[in-house]
Amino acid sequence: MAGWTQTQLLHELEPVVEVELERHLKVAKEWMPHEYIPWTEGRNFDGVLDGMPWDVTQSKLSETARTALVVNLLTEDNLPSYHREIYESFGADGAWGTWVGRWTAEEGRHGMAIRDYLLTTRAVDPVALERERMVHMTQGFESSFDVDMLHTVAYVSFQELATRISHRNTGKFSADPFCDQLLARIAVDENLHMVFYRNLMEKALELAPDETMKAIWDVVSDFQMPGSTIEGFTRRSVQIAMAGIYDLRIHHDEVLMPVLRKWKVFEREGLSGEGEKARQQLAEFMQGLDRNAQRFEDKRAAYRARQAARGQG
User: Which residues are noted in the entry as Fe cation 1-binding (predicted)?
Assistant: First the structure.
């Protein structure tokens, strides 16, 4: 059937949402954020409790680790905006609405837990962090593509995986076992969310291949991480990429390609007109992204070599 409306697709895919929701609830393990925080390291801050002012020397983390953690946290903080987007895309009825609520509840604990860790361990400046949170949440988040079910599911299929990898790599890079353990646990949530959306998108490709392929192309070609509106995001993302926490190579090899392969995007039959055009554009884009990733790797390797030669490696 050509020319699917969003209402038709929501109706036709609801049984798939029901199956995926049931699967998710069976495999998702309950966890308590407070159990991952080293509370005994906590001390009062200056202010109304007249505690100890924060100083950078109190942080056990490197500057880059602090940058990555702040970006990750501020990204998680914008949950109200993300909730609005998927609510507008999926609606509040039936299995779609149940998933929106469950997803929001699971995501909500991520920001709480990361903030508790950062403040308890005095890893970052609490005043600067709160001021950034206020600015970032006031700005909110708005997709660069149409807010409809197909574009939203395509986006979160990639974004949840990207977030999982970013959290996981940040935890490892931190060299703090408490941070690593917490972010590894959060990454499990993100992976389960990715699987839900990825499986749903796979069914959408079978049902409405042309419309779905067009949505995939739109999202991949203009993909932005949800934290891209954070002040100084470009500078911070370069710092994160130089550290190998999240860069173009990871985005290409570990985020986009695995999902596209799972969907059999480049082998799938049954496409016509717009769908086939979108696939060809996608193939060309991925080739260009691979070249750009290689150029960045070469520049980073040269930079590291220069730093090592100067005794700064």
Answer: 76, 107, 110, 190
